[in-house]
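Example 4.3 (complexes with small molecules)
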Amino acid sequence: MKRKRRLSMLLSLSILSMTIFAIPVSAAEATIDTENTNQFAEIFGEPDATSMGGDLEIMQIDSLEELDLKQQIPEVITEIDRPIVSNLDDIPAISNNVTTNNTLMRTRSIAEGSVTGFITAVNSAAQYNINLPANTYLQLQLDLPNNQNLDYDLYLLDATGQPLAVSDYYTYVNGSSGTVSEALGYPITTAGTYYFHVQSGVGASITESFTLKYSLSVVGEFDGMEMDESAYLAYPFTFSTMGVQLGTRNINSSIDSDWFYFTVPSGGSYDKVRIGATTTSQNTVGVEIYKNVGNEANGVYAMAKQNMSGGMLTVSPGKYYIRVYNTAPVFDSNDIQNYTLMASPSMRATGIATVLTGTSEASYVNYPGLGVGYRTWTGPLTISGYVYATVDGDIYPVANEAVTARYFNPGWDANNTAEFAYIEEDGYSDINGNFSVTIDLPPAIGNFSYYNGISTHYFDEAYAGAYLRSNSNIKFTELLWHFAYQII
Ligand SMILES: [Ca+2]
Ligand SMILES: [Ca+2]
Ligand SMILES: [Ca+2]
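Answer. The structure with calcium ion bound is encoded below.
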């Protein structure tokens, strides 16, 4: 990993005038899209409102002073060779029009804008100065070129060039989705001039641009746990074997990112976690999972995106970061509602049980001297069952577990007739841990017999059951009397 240059003092700024439009997001009638669903809701069903305290609870912040300024402010910036400073248009005055008697119909106002730029020389920077009103919450997001050889960082500076906040991930290209965006949040308690500062840590490019997005919200629009715009400021997120729902946060702007982390213990009882977020707001939310592949103890964050399949994340012991963000193409500032973030571990399967269902009159039969087996004729044999995990004496269903149902006939094996000796069919456990697979039985040989005083039964000794494809030692097998014919 490339070592970035750390900055330590800001040189004087040359001002290059440039007009950028700040885009106000105007207030409009709030509408709630109750039809909104997402994949997570389809998998889990609708969230239980009682366990998450209602999905419209919005934590109120009465003062920006309440925001927890816990991010480490960088050293003073230096060694900027050629800062280019552009003027951004003033953010239009926005006011807090919250009416407290109707949570859903609040009139909201957010100002947003964006600017695209380049860093034209190594160790250079691009700066944008802007006048910001007091009593607002500023969010910045820097979308980066998808290039491992470029590492740009994001600073917020005050009017004298002193850093107020920083986001300085190391570049880690996650395929076509690129490196995670730099992002920061800061409460503007004093009106005045501020600088958005894009700094090259590694490289420069006049052909691959960055895009800097900014958003200003007023008190009452953002949740009470801001300013977690980056993994540096992620909140710990824990869950028990039963999983957890968090329903107290919202996405307050098109560039709001809320970060959480959880730690998978070693020797734990699960290696998969279902993770997702859902909201009834038109501003849909998405979830991304990352691992920090940088040396976190040294403050190095390089975020490697993790693949999820059907909302399921395969985990190993270690720390995982969750990013919740807006996925609506057009953000509706009048429809800010809480989202519900959910995580539930899928226990590692420790057992499987099966039930056999054969053709008519199939049942358990005791042939004296041979033993009790499930007797059925040639035809369909349904092997259904349950995949489970035992954790601290409690039993949990295990969903989406790959299961193989199996029939084995030693008689056909001794005849070297493998296609009749071994028959397998694959299936998966459902959300409740249940599975059901049907095998068509081959013909029986009739190499075992028993005379019951009336007739002689001819049948095979066979075995039927199921095992986990992830661990074939976890299995359940029963003796099967595979009936051939009888002679009276
Ligand atoms: Ca960076
Ligand atoms: Ca938020
Ligand atoms: Ca946030």
